[in-house]
Amino acid sequence: MNSLIARAVNQLRSVRNVAALTGAGISIESGIPPFRGKGGLWERFDPMEIAHIDAFLADPARVWRVLVKELKDIIDRAEPNDGHKGLARLEAMGILKTVITQNVDGLHQMAGNTDVIEFHGTFAWQRCTQCDKRVETRAVDASVLPPRCSCGGILRPDAVLFGEMIPPVALWRSQDVAARCDVMLVIGTSAIVQPAASMPIIAKQSGAIVIEINPEPTPLTGVISNYLIQGRAGEVIQAIVSGLEKKR
Ligand code: NAD
Ligand code: ZN
What we know:
The protein is of the alpha/beta class. The protein is built from nine helices and nine strands. It folds into two domains: about 1-30 and about 80-120 and about 165-248, 3-Layer(aba) Sandwich (Rossmann fold), CATH 3.40.50.1220; about 35-75 and about 120-160, 2-Layer Sandwich (SIR2/SIRT2 'Small Domain'), CATH 3.30.1600.10.
């Protein structure tokens, strides 16, 4: 076993309150393209511009056409991978308590994690801009854009767009979880988007061990995280789970 995986297994064995912070990297193996990496959707336009609330308000049909419909098609088909399933297993083992995710794909819940803080909301649901009614994205008919609610209002993703605030409850709960955990696993996030990227800093400041799982170093590496397990989320998390399942 890789020595850093063995180290993580030993540390996770001796604690009870573990939190995870996840980013787009954990869903890449489910076929959902990340933000900054190579390939797919995001290379064709600037997400900062198209996924901005001002762009949506100015031309909702355009944002639906170039962003929401395509994301809907990708997310409708996506299934949890070994990374999501491994985190659900860690919860079932009584080790992992809360997942704070920046992802909007709903895959942690689909895998079986029960306490998931959706820091950036969700694309799995749409919300009416007039009456606030929520509709499951899978059930939305996107043949006429933008789709509308039964009240006539335009539907928008129930996600946090650029230029919008993090839902206050998600922010407060995440800060609380970060301040109280013994270990924080930081998985598949470039740790650039704020304020999500400050959760590992809060954890570290409060005395937690911070373990990163990512094929690449991030701004946290060597500064905030105790160590980086370099590799793909699915493989690394499965190796950790198998290590924990073996007898000491
Ligand atoms: P990011 O795109 O900025 O960074 C992705 C990170 O994943 C990188 O550090 C990369 O090295 C790492 N990575 C690549 N392959 C990996 C693998 N197999 N296993 C583990 N890690 C891997 O992602 P971010 O930090 O989450 O920020 C992007 C923002 O865009 C988020 O706030 C999120 O709301 C949104 N977003 C969400 C999704 C989704 O819901 N799946 C997808 C794209 C973007
Ligand atoms: Zn409505």
